[in-house]
Design brief:
The chain is an alpha/beta fold. Helices cover about 30% and strands about 25% of the residues. The chain has 11 helices and 12 strands.
């Protein structure tokens, strides 16, 4: 029988905020030299993020490759240690935890990786892969563990009879279901989904998303869903955060962001999402961004997006970075010209 989601979990909080991030920064040293290496700068992968995730919601984090989305997810789980900032999970500061304290907290936070081919040990059977977390956290052993593994596999739509098979015997979609079962084994509260469908066929992507939504309802899960495709996250997210070059430039309710995008970068991303109606598709204007994503070692002065922004003015280049402010109704945006887009 599937373990209860309410037993031996964290004490119910006094607030509906599960996770709070304040000024999160992850900077990697840029080294030069063959023998005597020296630091010549910093790669600012994540450069000052502040947001919160409510219990039971799905917050989507979207943006181009290289903007810092995956680094953000790993820093939240402390798989990468932040350079600066706070990560509060159930009001517990994770950046201060080490050793056994951090290991025990990780039971309540799991991750689904992008590549189901690389995230499963090819030398372990499916039963061992899914059952390993149960033993690591002393949740079940022996026959009880085997029964729970079989139930977990059934929960994600796989036959319990596959416990003795190996990862190479499964398709990409089936492997991702195994990864999801492994994440569920420790009864987490929060799961970082790092582009969980990017490596899957289009025909399988919808099945995995539907499965994740069903599991969220069944077990009261909270997701940070990382993706680069805005068309994917529309159907699974409650709120969406748009990230550019280590910063969140817009965050808001899903419908508000899709219907009234405020930041030029968000508008450009949405203009690339296909519309199934051919008449509407033919009439809308596509916004094509010029140039490449700037280097995170030396972000542009002023607004970071001004080098590619189709509506940038002198103010965007000369003044300090725009403040991340509420434009109304919990719709946050960092743009000097936000009033012009409302």
């Amino acid at each position: 029988m599937m373990p209860s989601q309410t037993s031996d979990q964290l004490t119910q909080p006094q607030t509906d905020t599960l996770l709070q991030i304040e000024n999160l920064q992850v900077h990697f040293p840029l080294m030069r030299g063959m023998l005597l290496q020296r630091r010549v700068g910093w790669i600012k992968a994540v450069d000052g993020l502040s947001f919160e995730i409510k219990r039971g919601e799905t917050l989507a984090l979207v943006g181009e490759s290289g903007c810092g989305k995956s680094t953000t997810g790993r820093a939240i789980l402390q798989l990468l240690r932040p350079t600066q900032g706070q990560v509060l999970f159930e009001q517990t500061e994770l950046t201060n935890l080490t050793g056994e304290s951090l290991r025990q907290m990780r039971r309540h936070m799991q991750m689904i990786f992008q590549d189901p081919y690389a995230s499963l040990n090819p030398r372990m059977t499916i039963g061992d892969i899914v059952g390993e977390p149960l033993e690591i956290f002393d949740l079940a052993t022996g026959a009880i563990k085997q029964a729970q593994v079989q139930q977990l596999l059934q929960t994600v739509g796989l036959s319990p009879e596959v416990v003795h098979r190996y990862p190479h015997e499964f398709s990409g979609g089936q492997r991702q279901r195994i990864v999801i079962a492994r994440a569920l084994a420790v009864r987490p509260d929060f799961i970082v989904c790092d582009e969980p469908i990017a490596a899957l066929d289009v025909s399988v992507q919808a099945q995995v998303i539907n499965l994740m939504q069903a599991l969220q309802q069944q077990f009261g899960l909270t997701y940070l869903f990382i993706a680069h495709d805005l068309s994917v996250v529309r159907h699974i997210s409650d709120r969406i955060a748009v990230m550019y070059l280590g910063k969140i430039v817009e965050l808001g309710n899903r419908d508000a962001l899709y219907n009234t995008p405020l930041h030029p970068y968000t508008q450009a991303l949405l203009s690339a999402v296909p519309i199934p109606d051919p008449d509407l598709e033919a009439t809308r204007q596509r916004i094509v961004l010029q140039g490449d994503l700037p280097s995170p070692t030396n972000p542009p002065q002023g607004c970071r997006f001004h080098t590619r922004c189709p509506v940038a003015i002198d103010r965007c280049r000369q003044e300090p970075e725009p403040l991340f402010k509420d434009a109304g109704g919990g719709h946050y945006v960092a743009c000097h010209l936000v009033d012009d887009f409302r």
